[in-house]
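User: Round two. Same drill as before: sequence, then structure, for each protein.

Assistant: Same drill it is. First protein:
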Amino acid sequence: MIERVKEYFKQWNMEGNIREFPVSSATVELAAKALGCEPCRIAKTLSFRAGERVILIVAAGDARIDNQKI
């Protein structure tokens, strides 16, 4: 999958914008640790389905999202 992303970025001369880590960055806490920063500096994305629509939320890593309010 990462190769497809790299190819897509390459067409826009942005392939250098992809960062890979030797450790997992699957959670905000792990990503912050890998980058050596605070969790609030990580942007996390959450996606929700609302009927036929999809909602994408980008929030600070330390933000709490109330799924019921979405």
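Second protein:
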Amino acid sequence: MRKSTIILMAFLCYVLSLTPALALNAITSAVGSSTLADETEAVEEVLAEVNAEVPNFAQNADICLLFSNVYYDEPEMLVGALRENGVSIPVWGATSSHAIMTTDGYEISENGGVSMLFLSGKTPRDLKVGVAAADIGTTRPNAVSSGKEAIEEAIAMLGDSPQIILVSSAPGMEEAIIEGIESVVGRGIPIVGGGSADNTVEGYWKQFANDQVYEHAVVIAAISTSVRIGYDFAHGYTPTEKTAYVKASSEYGRLVEELDDTPALDLYAEWINKEPRELEGMNLLGASLFSPVATHSSVRGRDYYVPGHPAIGDSDNGTMFCFKELPAATKITLMEATAEDLVLCVGDSIEEALEKGRIQAGHIGALFLVHCAGRRFAIGDKQMEDVVTEIKESIGCETPFITLFPFGEQGNNHITGNRHGNLCIAPLILSDRP
């Protein structure tokens, strides 16, 4: 081989190693964030970051995942600013509780805060997306129907069978929405997502789907891809020996009234060495961060627990409202964890997703991490920097990733199928190749 040819080939390999968008990757991605208070200026700052390496990457991508805090007075202007800047692709997302966590790190803003992940497939076979929404309604049957309606419309827009489904919704009917989705696609397709959130559990959350912003909807992204997919659903809590059966509950299993013939709040208070009056109202939400209850499944000899977060206590009648359905006859177990347990679980779960997806650490196209807002609060802002370290040690320092801090999480652990839980994490990893 001529010396000039060898030099040319070496140069081309060098160039390709420095410009991932020119490499033969099936999936490429870029992430950007901003804490500017003005919606338009924030979007422009995000796009400048996303397009810094590859001009017009955002405009030519296949989907935008958009997460903002609730400080923006006109969140619809976030989507509007994208359109004004030539980004006409599908948008899927939700409001996220307070913080931003991306490749750039963890940041709390008392003004605006928005992050976006753009995904691009080399060919339509590598990445296709359909995004749709439906109003949830006010009853559980309504919510089942909304999940069915949204996934049917998303699949129609996709024009193909999805390999992964992203979901977000107003909190409160997550199990019913999963039921509606699975009535269309079956139980074999992983569902990943989380409830839209605000900072104070006061109902200021929003959901984003394409050009629209909703207050009480389910938004779904149906994704078809040629690349390998890794996912997991984890929490980091350990079961204790304290268990009980739900003897009575209402509001679709969310209001737990009795545990083992004892007022539910009274027994739970005994478990965690508190007086019921100390758990009145939203005091229960904070007191249970490191000691939630969980449902239990045993599949092929493996035990798996899905936490439910006790949230609102009523010491007068002994009830406790939970963010997960706990119908009568359900066995629950008291769980426990430390902040360090919750931090370390993030890296472990991402590595589990990589292993199950057979994805090598050097071939990750992007990571979307669902990380419970309450879990973030339990860990604390200072230690959330350790979570960023866990992520980067698992996927590499420069791999684009984005985080949703939701109220309620949906995920699939490869054992029990799609589930809704609380205080959980759900990583979704797309490889950069088949």
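The chain has two domains: 24-234+340-431, 238-336.

User: Perfect.
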